[in-house]
Each structure stands twice: as structure tokens, then as C-alpha cells.
Amino acid sequence: MELYQDADAPVADRVRDLLARMTLTEKVGQVNQRMYGWDAYERTAQGHRLTDAFREEVARFEGMGALYGLQRADPWSGVTFGDGITAADGARVADAVQRHVIENTRLGIPVLMVEEVPHGHQALDGTVLPVNLAVGATWDPDLYREAAAAAAAELRARGGHIALVSALDLVRDPRWGRAEECFGEDPYLAARLTEALVEGMQGTGEAFGADRVAVVLKHFAGQGSSVGGRNSAATEIGARELHEIHLPAALAGVRAGAAGVMAAYNEFDGLPCAASHDLLSGLLRERWGFEGLVMADGCALDRLVRLAGDRPSAAALALSAGTDLSLWDGVFPELGTAVERGLVPTGVLDTAVARVLTLKFRLGLFERPYVAEGPERAAHTRELSERIARASITLLHNDAAVLPLAPEAKRIAVIGPNADSIPQQIGDYTAPQRPDSGVSVLAGLREAGADVTYARGCDLVGDDRSGIAEAVALAAASDVAVLVLGGSSAREHDTRFDDNGAAIIATGNPTEMTCGEGVDLADVRLGAGQRALAEAVAATGTPCVAVLIQGRPHAVSELAEQAGALVSAWYPGPWGGRAVADVLLGACEPSGRLPVSVPRSSGQLPVFYNSKDHGFRGYVDEPGTPLYPFGHGLSYTTTEFGSPHVSDGVCEVEVTNTGDRPVRETVQLYVRRVGGATSWPRVRELRGFRRVDLAPGERATVAFPLDDTVLASVTRSLDLAVEPGTYEIETGRSSDSTQSVTLTI
Amino acid sequence: MELYQDADAPVADRVRDLLARMTLTEKVGQVNQRMYGWDAYERTAQGHRLTDAFREEVARFEGMGALYGLQRADPWSGVTFGDGITAADGARVADAVQRHVIENTRLGIPVLMVEEVPHGHQALDGTVLPVNLAVGATWDPDLYREAAAAAAAELRARGGHIALVSALDLVRDPRWGRAEECFGEDPYLAARLTEALVEGMQGTGEAFGADRVAVVLKHFAGQGSSVGGRNSAATEIGARELHEIHLPAALAGVRAGAAGVMAAYNEFDGLPCAASHDLLSGLLRERWGFEGLVMADGCALDRLVRLAGDRPSAAALALSAGTDLSLWDGVFPELGTAVERGLVPTGVLDTAVARVLTLKFRLGLFERPYVAEGPERAAHTRELSERIARASITLLHNDAAVLPLAPEAKRIAVIGPNADSIPQQIGDYTAPQRPDSGVSVLAGLREAGADVTYARGCDLVGDDRSGIAEAVALAAASDVAVLVLGGSSAREHDTRFDDNGAAIIATGNPTEMTCGEGVDLADVRLGAGQRALAEAVAATGTPCVAVLIQGRPHAVSELAEQAGALVSAWYPGPWGGRAVADVLLGACEPSGRLPVSVPRSSGQLPVFYNSKDHGFRGYVDEPGTPLYPFGHGLSYTTTEFGSPHVSDGVCEVEVTNTGDRPVRETVQLYVRRVGGATSWPRVRELRGFRRVDLAPGERATVAFPLDDTVLASVTRSLDLAVEPGTYEIETGRSSDSTQSVTLTI
Asked: Second label for B723, Cα 20 to 30 Å away, from A635, A727, B6, B222?
């Protein structure tokens, strides 16, 4: 037995031993991830067959570093239930792929199987979780950790090893179609959820358990601040904005042990992230001590040819910067040429190869390359998906106490283009769903036994008003109208795609997509037809509840006036309709809190609670404040918050349920630097939160230790440290409803 | 005679000698500019009298570094023709101030008199020039140099020494109310105009002529990129964006010899500019070799107390960073305490004092402290004001060839809230005008002998439609309707102001201001009333010309459809109405070119031609392209551009007037880096322009030497250098209409 085959040897020794045996071509093979996984197989009458293209790719490099998306299914890949890999086939096909690689290469190095798991595995029968923005609205890392573990187990049971998961991007501009992939606008909230993601999927410890996978966190860094909320546009922000806002989630993920990060498309300081030595080496490796993998984004390295001149030079540029593994590009396959031409030393390539090999060892692929038989996982994930949906539903206003719907509100008119569509409630990066799966809002209300009528009312986009009359008639004849509006990231059969899978949306396309990768929106109001529908339905005088199924916070000032109650259900996943119904009917208390500020219009963007504190007053034609602030969310009861008290380095605050229903309150801790720091402070910064369950009349004291994670800020040298000065420690129910105590350090 | 009094001694020697004689208090006095100038005098029946407050301020520091705005008049200062200083009084009052300072202080150091000259001297009888955005539309540095010289002479003849002039800010987001103070969106255009400004006002050479003044360029740096176009908000941009976009105008001004720059309010990398050693010392002094003065913006240093803890520490922070002279703040008066406490070495204070004294010597104030008799200047400035107005008028479209108005279009209905208001056509930072001065568009058309009727039609803001019917009747009964719409920066008597003079605009104020400092707009469309008016007038079927009087590019997609011709006249100054009339009637050819991209909506902001080249495709609901591109502007004739040719380091292009009227065409040169640079390139970058006058049928060859100013870009180390690579050299009539030739370096 060779040293690298010795399961008891330290991983580092095994890697060194194996590396020493490898040819340049084999090394280059290990840092490449060229194929679309769905090109690796064909489904025939006899089952799945590996393609010649796959065999040739393995042969070309005497091995394969990673195979992307073997089980991916969606309109872009073109994979459907007719020709794809279902849950029943996944393990078998994955094993066939692995067996081919191991048995047909000189060294038999197993291949990493990489899958998109943005919110559940994007594969046929992969269990869909609510999108990250919904997860953000739960403010519940524990629940998300559990769901992430379930998704990981489901993935591993089908042969996947690496989950690509969006976590690091922030919604700094909700025009961006990928807002749904973010945990919200806030670095602290995103950091806690990113930690939970990594812990849930990977577990803790050097080696991964048999039901765990490695996580590659997307995207590093700053992609949420692209100019104009435009996908793939530049990021103009400076180092401080990057450090204060965009890096905390990545740092939390790295500290939690994330196996990898994906270099973002956007540039920073004139260099695409995959080519930025400052970011990938100076910051990530040297400053943070990250020892994992940096994966390129899809075809991102091809873009570097423009700067570098040719492919080998582009390959050398990215590798030298700190990119370890390609994705679909034609650049990293030229690394052999780059080394031979002396554009990059072999040692740098060896380091990247070592990172890939290390992960394979840590995953146990040399010892257990094939899928272990395990229990059926999907039911557990499904339950967690629905729990997240429930926890994410955010009650924005309920002035008329329309909610929960009174038992005497028997006739319910369910109206709107998002009332009865599973594809429209699951978000982007999702596979085709089986016809009978999922529960729409309409179905959820029906299931609950409500007396429901339904009219679509209008299309999601455009201004066709032909369906409004029917909806109005229905509303007029009912006790309450439930308007289900919002956006959609459902890709259609005729959607065109870019090389990297982003939708290509020409302005004015007759598409019903308003969100998702490549689908940015200039005007974040609802479509004109939806607005007309809401106005007409509200005008009937029938009490009206508006439910928003959405992947971004839409600007809904008028709707907020028209509807007695307003609920954001985000993209709640396939079973989200049941969650919505339960909240509307009072079977479940609403407990979501806004992970983003809800804007009044595109004209006031960007709007977030943690802007720099420069006393900005607002526009002459519109306030500078959001329609609903970050952290906001109502319950069906009332709560009272005491003033915070600080003693012995702990901040305590009392919360009382003063109403007659139970509540899950989210106590939020903000820090406001009021004097003495070395850089200009923000208005306030979230630095802690606790969920607390209170029965009617119950009181609880919530304690926050005021440690460095609460008080530290980014110093002039861009380190994190607690600077002497004066701080307001604020606690409350949302970012615009806090009480404070002064702390001098 | 002491050395410092010897006019023949080198300035540096005089400064050193004088400094050595000064007490700490006297030094502190020289770097302070505490008073509002209008508090220094009272007008009585017997004339202007110096106030006790002024005398006390001089006594307090045994001298006075600078006096701000002695002659300023506007609603903020509260100065009017009833109590202010007119042209007839200016020299006498200024001399009285100077005499008091010289004769009542130990060393008799003259005071610098500092005035706002954003577009003409902001004083009673000060001749108003069109705003900078209009100057930008002329693309004519020669004309502007002449106007700047005229304004300087006018100022000096009234006793002013330093002109504060906005020049460095760029319109990167037209929501910003100070867009009117910018030369446009483009660094190169702004750089050429900033150069012209400095050359025109200061002349060249070490000493200033008797009709010249020193220029302090506002604002350094990056203020045009404040978040959300919000005045005083943070600037999040990084060093590269700063260097590529926001610094070229400043660098050009410094190289042209600008006497000073004003540190901007905004922060950069967490520090307000006035506290940024990196900006004010590292970059400005050390890298660029700037030897002039850095002045703080109004009350800006007071804000530093939040960081520094107390006033002396804030003073030390700003002085150490490189700020030399205060403005109204309570911080720099504490510099003595700061030095005594050891917070900053005396040597640092001496350097700042030396900079102030040097400027006083260069201005000849020790030899000629009082105002020289000179010719009356205003008529010359007025002529130049009107020439700039003419040159700035930008014809955006003329599809129906409605313009120039045919002689048979006899009955002209002039309609709109900007048709007959001088205050609304002069912009912000202007003094009250004499009742009989100026020519509105309505008056201009009448003066030209047109048969004109007039209806205001609607208010500038709001949605009152009561005046529309009258306007529609007028239009229906006319041969052509001239709609004069847009915005206004006219401050009103009841406008409230911030400490620093910015208007305080509460959202929903019943104000007619839509622009100006402190007046930012979320929705850059015209007001609802104006839009309704345009729609109604256009619906009459009477041919319609729309003229926009505006301080920012408004989003006018619908108006562009409704009107046969669309003209932007910017804020054309008091006599701009005559210029507009002449262009409409064909007495003058339109020759303005857009200095900014005209957006389609606030939702697509920011939109500029020189964005980073990342292949952005547009929003799903709106294109990413502007309504009209940077550099665009039509003539009343047609022109043809040949392909560019490069030989011997010169790019040549032929332009032909193919129509039947004369033209002043603006040939634009753009550079597009297509390969090989060290940072990601922009779509294209303006690097040259030439105006060329062509008679009908005439052809000319325009030549651009391809020197470093054309080809250089910002390197990784943030220097300017020509990097090897492939370039497209593009020439054409606008940023979206070019032909190119490839150049490899």
C-alpha cells in the first residue's frame, strides 16, 4: 500500500505523497471542472449510460478534479424527468461515474461531485427549501442548521460531495435579481446563517461524516453591491465597505470551517475576484488563515483572457491570485502550457492541487468512493422546508386586525397571479417539480377547510386588465379577499440562457420572470396589472389581505394602504402555501422579521438601515426612510420591551407578552458608535438577536454578553478590534424601534 | 523695511520671515475663516458700517486669515438689495474691511476675501453665468476660460481675492441636487473645463494679475458618488473609482496651478475628506506636488468632533491630515489649544499658515491691499454669459423637423412653469436679481418679434391640473406650442437652511424647488402636473417643441414621444431666454452636446457611458441604455463622419457638413481598451474633442495626437501610465455613434 492510500496516515502526508507521483497533466486535471455534468450521461431504455464525452474528458487528464452538476435539472441544463436523474437513480449513476474515474485512470483518484444546493439540491426529486431570503426572515440559525444538515444528507445519499450554496451576497440593492439568494441586507445576520449552513452541511471536525458534504460558499466578495443592482456589473465599493458589509459572512463561514468559497464574477479594484491576489491570497489565506478551496465561477476565467492576453496567461493570473479550481472555462485546461512557459511556478499549481486532494481525503473518497446505503431522507428535509416557510412569514402590517382571519370570515376570495403556482413560489435554481408536489396558497386554504373561491385576476407582469372584473366580483361576494401577488423566478421553456446559466432577458420579453439570476428589475414596484388589480379589489370594500410571494422586497406603498393586512411570504418553497394558510387562519403565529428594508420606490434606492451616519434628510419628493425597516415584523399579540441594562459586560432586556396569544419575539441588539472611533460610524449595526417564546402574559429577560463580536469594528488597518469610545447599546423589536444605554470603553 | 515687506524678495523668504514674527494666536488667526461676511457690516442711512462682531473677531486673533462671503447675497444669508452690498459699494466696503484689518493688527497682515463664484459672483449685481452643467454642454473650454476671466475681473474689482468654484464634482447620479454644479459625468470633459477655469481666473504664472483671483476648486474628492445621489451621504467607492473618475479634474486643476481645493464633506474610506491624510497629503501634496491651500467646507470640521472626541483633537486631526483653512467651524479656533496640548506640532501649523501667507503674497495684497480703479466689467461678463447659454443649448431630437420654427409658424403658444421666470433659469448659488434684469424664454420670443401667447399651465411640482385647460386652448389655437418645462433651484423666502447653507427640504414641502444643494430628487421625471400638461398639449395635434430648463438631466421618455423637438437649455442664466428664442427661431444654430447621459427613469440609475465593460444587458423591465447618450446633440444640418485613421501617432478623421445650414460639430475621441491592461476597462473613455465650424458642404480633417493623455490609464499602483495592450481609437459624434481603428502598443 502506498502512503497516500493509507487511511490512517495524516492527510497532509497522503497529499504530499500523491502529489509527488503525479504528472503535470494529472495535476492540471485535478484543478479542472470543465464538464456540465448532464453531458456525462445519457438516459436510454436500459438506464443511464456514460457518454463518450465524459470518458474522453477523464482520459484527457488521466483523471478528473471535479464534475459539476451531474444531477442538475432545470430549463438551462435542459434536463427534465424525461431524461434526467431522479432520486431513485442518483446514487447508481454517481457510483458509475466514480467507478469509471477510479478504474480508468493511472492513480485512481476519485472525482469530486459538485452540485448546486442553493436551497435544497437542484436535482429531480431534490427537496426544495425556501430561498435564502426567506431563511433570513426566520432569524433562526438553529432551524437553518438542521435544514442544511438534512439537505446535505440528501445530497450525499445521491452521490454528491460538494454543495454550492449562495450565502455571502447581500441585498444592498433589491433591483438585483439574485436578491432571493441572499440572507438579507445585514452582515451580522448573514454571518450567523452562514455559520449555521457550514455547521449543518459539513458538521464539525477535520473529516466529514458519511451524511455530510463540503460547502463552497458563493460568492467571494462584494457581489451584492454591483452597480445599479445589475447582475455581473462592476462593484465600485472600496475596501472599507467591503470589510464592514460584505466580508463578515465570509469570515464567519471560514471560521466555521467552510471547505471552499467561490470567487465572485464582479471585479474589485479593477480585477475580477478570481484574479485578485489581494482578495484570495492576501486577505483570505494570509489574513484569515483559510486553508480551503477557491473555486471559480462559471466561465469566469474565460473573461480574464481580455486582461491577460491569452488563455495560458489568464490561467497563470488566476492560479497565482489564489484560484484553485475552474468551472467550465477554457482557461485552466491551459495550465500545463502556463507552467511549461514559466508563466507560473509548478509549486503554485501543486498548492492548488493539494487543496483539491485534501478535500477528497477529508471527504473519505479514497476509502469510501461509492454511495452508502442510507435511509430515505427527503421526508425529513421536506418537513424542515415547511418549518422554515412558517418561520419566515413576515407580517408587515395588520392595522385593521384583519388577521388572523376570523372564523366568521367564511367566504374567502383568493385572488392573484401568485395564488396557485408552485413554480412561482420556489424561486430560481430549482429543478422541475413533480406534478402532484407542493401546496399553493390556494390549495393551502382549501386544505384547511376554508370556503374558497379563486380568480387569477391578472398576469404577473404587464398591464392586461381583462381578468380584473371577475376578481372584483368574487371579492365583492366574499367576506375577505386574499390577494396573492409578488414576483416570480420560474424559468420557462423558452427562457434563453447565458454561458453561465444566467437567464438572458431582453427588455420587454413576454416573460413572467421578474426575478432570478440575470433578471434584474429597474422598477421594484409590482407590475401595473397587479397594482390595478389590488386597487380594484380594495375598492370593493371587502376586507383585504395581501400576501407577497417574492424573491426581493417589492415597493408596495399603495398596497400597504389598500390592504388591511400585508404579509411577505418570500418564496416559501413547494409547501409554503400551507404555511401561508396556517398563518392567515391563525393556526400558526407569524414570526418572521424583515431581513431587508422594504423600499418605497426604486428612486430611493439604496435603502438599508445600516448606512453611514451622515444625517441624510430624505429626498424632496420622498422620504429617505424605508416603507418598513429592517428587523420589522408583527405578531398576533403585543409585546413590550424594557430598557436595556448593562452590568458585568452583559446587556439585559426584559420582554413581556402583553397580549392574548403566544408569540415568538425576536429581540434585536444593535450597536451605535457615537464617539471616538477611527472611522465614520453607521447609523446602527446589528450585533445580536435572540428568539424568545412567550405565552400570553409571560415575561423573559434576554441577555447579550457584550463581547468583541458585539463591540468590534473595522479599524483603519482593516482589522477587527474594539476601539475606545462611546457606544449606544440598543435593544428592541426592529432597527427603528429600540431603546438604548450608553457604554464607554 | 522688514524682509517680509520687501516686494522684491522671493515669496518663500517673505513667508519665512513673517512666520518667525508671529505669535501662536496670530498663526491660528491666519488659518481661520470663521465669520459669515454679511455679519461684518451693517448698512445704515450713512452707508456701510463695520460691525463690532467683525472688530472683535479681528482683535481676537490679532488678524484675520480669510473673510468668507462679505458680498454674498441670497435667501440663506438673508442679504437683499435692501441691506446688502451692490456693485457700486463693493470696492469701498471691501477696502474698509481690509483697512481695518491692516491698521488694527500688530503685523498688518491683509485679509483674504473669499467669495462664492460658482457661476458668476454670488453677490448683488454679480453677473450670473449659466450653471456648470450648461458650461459642460458647450464642450468649449476656450469660451469658458474667457468667461472665467471676466468673472474674476468683476470679482477683483469689488475686492474679492478668492473664488470658490464647483468644478470637481461629477454627475454620477442625477438625483443629486448639486448636479447643476458639475461639468457633467465625464472626468476628461471636467478636467478640460477645470483647467480653463483656473487659467481664466488666475492667469498663469506665480503672481496674480490685478484683474485675477485665486481659485479654490470644490470639492475634493468623490462627492459626486454619494450613496443614492443624497447630499452629504457617504461615498462608498474605492480607490480605483476615485482615481479613474473623480480625480482627473482635480489633477488637471492642480497642474493648471489652482491656488486651492476645498475638502469635500463626504468621507472616503471611513474618514471625512478634511480628515484624510491619504487624500490631502499622501495624494494631493506628495504624489501630485500640490503646493496650494486646502480649505475646509462649511462647518465640516465640526463633524470631526464625533471621531476625535473634542474640538482641539478634531483640529489636530484635520490640520495633520492636510487641511489648512477653516470655514465657519468652531474647531480650528482651538488649534492653539491643540498645539499647546501637543496634539499637533507647531511645525504643522506653520506649514498651513505659510500656505495662507504665500497666497496673500502671490495676490500682491501686501503691496496693493485695496481695490484698484478699473473699467466697468459687468457688460463683458454678461455678453459671455449669453454666449455660453447659446453654446450650451442641446437639441436632443427633432424628428419632425419642427425646429427651427418655420417663418409661417406665426402663432406661438408658450406654455409651462419655466417659460417666464428668471429665478428659475439661473440655478442655485445666485443672489437676488434686479427686477428688470434678464430675459425669459417668453420674453426672448417676444423680443424676437414672434406672435406669442402664454399660459403657465401648471406648477413646477405637484399635480394641480387646473391650469391645463387654458394651455390646451392656447395650443389648439396656435401654429406651434413651445412647452417650457423642467426644474428649479430658485430658493424662496421661506426656505429653511442648514448650518452650511444647504436647503433643508422636508419631503412633501410645498416648495417649487426641485434642485440645488440639499434638494435631491428620488424620481427624476418631471412633476406629475408637468407630465399631464405635456400630454394634454401634445394631444391637441399642434406641433410641439419642448424646452427643458433644468439643473439635472430629467427622465423624459414620454415627453420625447410627445414633442416633435426636444431641447435642453439647462439653467441658461438670466439672459438665457434670448438664447433659447434664437435657437428655436433659427437665428442661432444649436451646438450643445450632452455632458451627461439622460436617464429613462430613476430605476435604471446610475447610467453613464463610461461604465466598466462587463456586458450588462439591461433590466427585464427597462433597457440599461440611457434615453440620450453622453455626447449627443443635434444640429439643424446633417454631418458625415469618416473612419478614423492613425499614422505617426496622430488620429485623423474627416467631417463633412452634408446639409444646407452651417454647423459647429463636436468631434469626439474615445478610447476603448480591448486587451492587455492591468485593470478592467470601461466601455469607452472620452480622451479628446474638437469643435469644428463647417459651412454647408464644407469638409474638414480633425487631428488628435495620440499622446499619453489619450492613452494613459490608471495602473495597479494607481499611477497614470500607458500600458501595453490593444486599444480601439474611436471617433464620432457622440458616445454611442463612433467608428474605430485598432491600435496596438
From this structure: B222
